[in-house]
Amino acid sequence: MFKKILIANRGEIALRVIRTCKEMGIKTVAVYSKADEESLHVRFADEAVCIGPAPSSESYLKIPNIIAAAEITNADAIHPGYGFLSENAKFSKICSEHKIKFIGPSPEMIEKMGDKATAVSTMNNAKVPTIPGSGGAVESAEEAVKIASKIGFPVMVKASAGGGGKGMRAVWNKGEFKKNWSSAKQEASAAFGNDEMYIEKLIQEPRHIEIQIIADQFGNVCHLSERDCSIQRRHQKLTEETPSPFMTKKLRDKMGKAAVKAAKFINYEGVGTVEFLVDKNRNFYFMEMNTRIQVEHPITEQVIDYDLIKEQIKVASGIRVSGNDYFPKLHSIECRINAEDPENNFRPSPGKITNLHLPGGHGVRVDTHVYSGYTISPNYDSMIAKVITTDQKRDEAINKMRRALDEFVIEGIQTTISFHRKLMDNKDYIKGIYTTKFMEDFEY
User: Fold this and answer.
1) 359 preceded by cis ω (within 30°)?
2) What tens digit of pLDDT does each residue of 374-432 get?
3) How far is CA 122 from CA 162, 170, 184, 254, 382, in A?
4) Which of 82, 103, 124 is the last residue of a domain?
5) Is residue 242 within 8 Å of residue 303, measured between CB atoms?
6) Are residues 86 and 24 in the same domain?
7) Confidence of residue 322 (pLDDT cuts 50, 70, 90)
8) Residue 298 domain-assigned?
9) Are 31 and 324 in contact (CB under 8 A)?
């Protein structure tokens, strides 16, 4: 087992990893930018190293600075969290070259699944259902139009290196194709430094359902059931739940087996999430694989009583997984609380928190790094907390979330607490009737 782990991240996920490490008797090293000097992950780690100024490009994305921090503190492993360098094959490779264990998959696995066009091609070879499309990167707009016409409109133009909805466009007919192709390429180039694109059939009335998996270096893979992430705004997840209200036992079995097959085909190691689009007839199609821990992992932990971070660390240290699949015993919902103004088009709202009261009670979990007096920086993602409620049944978990949101007080900045509170009263949400298009008609 590792003696000391450096957490190459910030905020609530860094604090989350630190807590599990402490429970496992593992020393921790926090890294932080100058903007995060007062963050809780810095306070609660055993050691902390400043790695640069506020911009992430000069701190949390600066590989030499992070490696140097690991070496001067004698850390024998690095946990990347999510975002930043968590799916960076180069970072994984450099860690290995410096004899520091990267708690995540190998560079080869990240490269195989991190590029979305390559991932789709790989899953085709694995005989995992995929969305009809180009089957890989497309060189030109002319070639893309031919492919789109062949598979039939509407289609999605997507960036191979994409994420967070960047470099994606829905195209409904041939006449608007080139304009959308060009704008998507420009956005992809600006966001990822890579303007490679591919084409997929646009699945209408889709659910976004993902399967959590964990695999060890000995070829054992198990799935930990599903999460429904369909409620999104601009391809950014807002709330998630498990089990999905759309799921059936038969569909869960099929999707679980497909996710395990995908992981085994690439000899995957670590935790990962295989994401699918599911149409109204419950046909499912591979969308992408996230080779890291997910923001929404707590709801899976709550319904199967399983510490994903602990198991991730154990797998990285060479311990086998059970090989048994896990199924939800309870119902859990997560609401992401962002420093945004939902009444002003979800505009970011950085600033100082002047007053804070966190909800509590049985079945309520809050993952956060903020406190009264903490200043939200404009330099990073606006998510500042996650509220997770868990109960025997879905309606009970919704009732508990209403109560928790009513107790949650954050003053000094605008947040999405009020948005989520209204969502919990929405009739369609209560019935479990929603798709990825839900937010287009949701009136706030």
Assistant:
1) no
2) 999 999 999 999 999 999 999 999 999 999 999 999 999 999 999 999 999 999 999 99
3) 17, 24, 24, 19, 34
4) 103
5) yes
6) yes
7) confident
8) no
9) no
- Cα dist. 328→114, 287, 361, 428 in Å? 28, 23, 21, 23
Residue 83's CATH number: 3.40.50.20
The answer to the question of residue 327 being in a domain is: no
94 shares a domain with 24: yes
Indicate whether 138 and 62 sit together in one domain: no
Amino acid (1-letter code) at residue 357: H
Provide mean pLDDT across the span 264-288. Answer: 95
| Contact between 110 and 128 (Cβ < 8 Å) | no
Last residue of one domain, picked from the residues 201, 231, 253: 201
User: How would you write the chain as a 3-class SS string?
Assistant: CCCEEEECCCHHHHHHHHHHHHHCCCEEEEEEEHHHCCCHHHHHCCEEEEEECCCHHHCCCCHHHHHHHHHHCCCCEEECCCCCCCCCHHHHHHHHHCCCEECCCCHHHHHHHHCHHHHHHHHHHCCCCECCECCCCECCHHHHHHHHHHHCCCEEEEECCCCCCCCEEEECCHHHHHHHHHHHHHHHHHHHCCCCEEEEECCCCCEEEEEEEEECCCCCEEEEEEEECCCEECCEECEEEECCCCCCHHHHHHHHHHHHHHHHHCCCCEEEEEEEEECCCCCEEEEEEECCCCCCHHHHHHHHCCCHHHHHHHHHCCCCCCCCCCCCCCEEEEEEEECEEHHHCCEECCEECCEEECCCCCCEEEEECCCCCCEECCCCCCEEEEEEEEECCHHHHHHHHHHHHHHCEEECCCCCHHHHHHHCCCHHHHHCCCCCCHHHHCCC
Number of compact structural domains in the chain: 2
Does a structural domain hold residue 82?
yes
Report pTM: 0.89
Range of the domain at 157: 132-201
Indicate which CATH number applies to the domain containing 156: 3.30.1490.20
> Which tokens belong to 151?
């598979």
Same domain, 14 and 84: yes
Q: Which active-site residues does the annotation give?
A: 292
97 has a pLDDT exceeding 80: yes
Give, in order, the Cα–Cα distances in Å from 27 to each of 66, 272, 440: 17, 25, 46
Question: How many other β-carbons are positioned within 10 Å of the β-carbon of residue 426?
Answer: 15
